[in-house]
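Render this sequence as a predicted structure.
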Amino acid sequence: MIRAHKNAIIARLEADSTLAGRVFEGEVEPDSSRQRYVTVWINSGARSPDRLTGPSAKATFTITLHSVATTPDQAQYVAERVHAQLVDWTPTVPGRRCRRLTHEVSLATQKDADITPALWYQVDEFDLVSDPA
């Protein structure tokens, strides 16, 4: 179930022509030609019951994204493309009834000076609530 939700998110991001081929789960393999990309992480989905005594079938996934580029402006551009794809979007996952994504966290653009050349990134978190169909 975790992978199906993750795959829906990645497919949605990849549907954007700017992000296509630039969306990665976790680490990005070194490539000096890569100047803009998005990394995606998803938790295992916090489980909770719909009713007090019911099964814990509802899952709330947190999706963390890093929009990365060589300048602050470009990192913000990548984040804009992410927002265009995910804000208010409702995924389709077989066997589940998903609610539209909510944009829960957005952090200021930051510099990663631990690498050469330095990169800039913007962090966003979205929540996805998924119930059994």
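Summary. The radius of gyration is 16 Å. The mean pLDDT is 93.
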